[in-house]
Amino acid sequence: MSCDQRVALVTGSGQGIGRGVAIGLARDGYLVILNSRSADPNNPNVGAYEVKNVIETDGGAADVIRGDVGHLEDHEQIETVIAEKYGRLDLLVNNAGVAPAVRADILEATPESYDRVMGINLRGPYFLTQRLARRMIEWKQDGAMETGRICFITSISAYTASISRGEYCISKAGLSMATLLFADRLAEYDMPVIEIRPGIIATPMTAGVKGKYDKLIAEGLLPNRRWGTPDDVARAVCAVGRGDFDYSTGEQIDVSGGFNIRRL
Ligand code: NAD
Fold it and tell me: For 83, which of 118, 164, 216, 222 is 20 to 30 Å away at the CA?
């Protein structure tokens, strides 16, 4: 099966950054495959089906594939649906991720939390990318698509120590290296791999720590004195999706309101 439209998969796109990225890519002409662990077609007002409705109302095209990125057995199903229905994947956006269920000091944090966060944030996207990149090479070589591009949504936590969520920081640092590894490996096929590092973005993930970050931002933590939005991140991903960063494989784009500027 092959499809005339460019196809993007955005993992974890039922809310937050993934939702914004999916809507942005659909506006740029991608057929967007939304992925979520709990997509329910009988409940079109929440999660991936809500996003699908928004995209379709806007004149775009979307599909939904249920699947848990942390469960390697779900990856085969994701691959099969994409192969059978579309026969191409022009853009993979590894967005799904979780924070620790409980923020715990690094001297107290549990192996269970470590395994959960690493499984979803690092092991899952690493092996999903391995599996889909192999297909993307084939589809590019068969002429089903012009090229394949990959984005990893990491975080400023890839290089910023937060001692109450060490496992999250380690997972994002690992994903940053995964970007370099896949960028190096796929360069011979001219398939760019780019890391996007969001800063403090207003989503359901950060809703529980809103007060803490409101205060830090008001006190000047960020030169751009506001929270980031899913749309801020979507703009960066859309630029990658358009090919604007094709000669920058392996690079990081920070979307963090100037967080990295050292100031005196
Ligand atoms: P969010 O919790 O609002 O949304 C994450 C989405 O991913 C949810 O829909 C969730 O159901 C889904 N998801 C979680 N685990 C999954 C799994 N195993 N399989 C499939 N889907 C799964 O979070 P967000 O703020 O939108 O974050 C999106 C990504 O951006 C994450 O990787 C996060 O670490 C990263 N990030 C967020 C911020 C921020 O400030 N919000 C900052 C830096 C990086």
Answer: 118
Q: What is the pLDDT of residues 100-118, one digit of tens each?
A: 999 999 999 999 999 999 9
219 Cα to the center of ligand 1, angstroms = 26
Q: Tell me how far apart the alpha carbons of residues 50 and 34 are, in angstroms, rounded to a whole number.
A: 10
- Report DSSP letters for 193-261, one per residue: EEEEEE-SB-SHHHHTTHHHHHHHHHTTSSSS-S-B-HHHHHHHHHHHHHTTTGGGTT-EEEESTTTT-
**What CATH number is associated with residue 198?**
3.40.50.720
pLDDT in tens, 142-184: 999 999 999 999 999 999 999 999 999 999 999 999 999 999 9
Residue bearing the CA closest to ligand 1, atom 2 = 205
Q: What sign does the dihedral 188-4-246-153 (CA atoms) show? A: negative
Q: Is 176 in the pocket of ligand 1 (CB under 6 A)?
A: no
**Domain of 50, in residue numbers:** 7-255
Q: Is the CB of 97 under 6 A from ligand 1?
A: yes
Whole-number Å distance, alpha carbon 201 to ligand 1 midpoint, is 11
Distance 197 CA to ligand 1 centre (A): 13
**Does ligand 1 lie within 6 Å of residue 15's CB atom?**
yes
